[in-house]
Amino acid sequence: MNKKKHGFGSTLHLKFIVVYIIFGFLTIFTTAAINSDFIDDHLIESAANSLYKSANITATEYLSSYFNDQLSNHDVHNQLNGIVSYSDASAWFVDTEGNLISSAHPDNHPAPPLVIEHFDPLEGNGALFLEGSYHDSFNAPVITVMAPVVNGFHTKGYLLLHKYVSDITSVGDILTKRIHVTSLIIYLLSFIILLAFELIIYRPLRVITRAATEYASGNLDYTIPVNTQDEMGYLSASLNYMSSQLKDMEDYQKHFVANVSHDFRSPLTSIKGYVEAIADGTIPPEFQQKYLDIILFETERLTDLTRDLLELNEFDTKNLLLNKTQFDLHEVIKYIAASFEGTCTKKKISIELIFAKKHLNVYADKSKIERVLYNLIDNAIKFSDPDSIVTVETTELGEKVLTSVKDNGIGIPRDALNKIWERFYKTDLSRGKDKKGTGLGLAIVKESIQAHGENINVISTEGVGTEFTFSLPKG
Ligand code: ATP
Ligand code: MG
User: Fold this and answer.
1) Is the CB of 236 under 6 A from ligand 1?
2) Is the per-residue pLDDT at 7 higher than 50?
């Protein structure tokens, strides 16, 4: 059991940690994919694009007039200075041979050569820009864009713009650094999830598992100390409820078995005693009849008890099938009442039947209803004083038929009214009147009526009388 518990704990924990590590790796991989190269390439490309645009515009819109002598060197220089200040790049204006006409450059750029050695306008084979030290003019990598300056349909010169790669990519470096830091922070923050899992799910679950183990080993008194207002709390509340129900059931069963054994043992003891006494001659043959009657009485009691237990067991196992038919309730009542004739004459009790009509059909299980009536009339007679009347009356009420069994007997104390339906329950009042009863009769009555989907009620006043009323569907 312990081993199992441990296994459960470590697997859940382990699984979650594995998921967590996978999550960590995914975070690292994702951020690595957004690496600086990826960003730098993009930045260089777009910087080259905008450099090329400004070079081209300046070359066509402005510098071409230089070759008409419309612009002074000073004007050109100013224009180039403008480019330098807003694009942070060196601007070289050269003729087709590579001889410098004019130039401007930021402070951190080297001065241009007077002649670009091996100048080749087609260098780069049509690429938008060149990357490198541009003919060793720079000591760090630059990108170079080149725009032709055309005048009168002839290319007369070129405008070259150079920008340090490091200046372009510095933004990207900051960006990638930020991304890495952010993802690291996210990863660390996600430890909160792990912590929450530990506190909200894992620990309560362990407590609940422990409780389940306790229940399995028979300790139903264990209460789960999880009171949170969430699924864990509800689960443990349900389990606590379950264990209390099981406990009640266990108590009930112990009680039940104790009652049954007691009720079997006392008649058996008396039977054994009398039979032994008769066998060894302690009771002479002329007195035997009296004791044989007692033995017969006790045997009947045992038979009744066994029958009642079997019947209750039938209700408990729930595979009870009612054999419903249409029958005349009045006829059944008359028949049952007649079966009490002997007892009634002995006790001088009369049974009065009050029926509005001769026949009254109901739809129910006939044998069960016979038992119900038998038990109720039996009680009414048992708990009545001699010279009294027991009344059985039927009333039609809509689709129902109400049957009441009423007596003027000892009554049931108020605080016992709820308990009379319990198995083996007998009021203290009744013990003197009836020694044979086991207290199972009303339990069977109630189960029978409820199995029909109907109700039974009791009204009683101690010392005055009792009335039981149950309903049945009309036939
Ligand atoms: P059994 O029916 O098993 O022979 P029982 O009659 O004692 O035994 P129930 O019919 O279940 O048991 O009744 C339970 C208890 O309810 C009785 O013991 C008695 O105390 C009380 N009771 C039932 N009916 C009446 C009644 N008509 N008047 C007074 N008390 C009653
Ligand atoms: Mg009874």
Assistant:
1) no
2) no
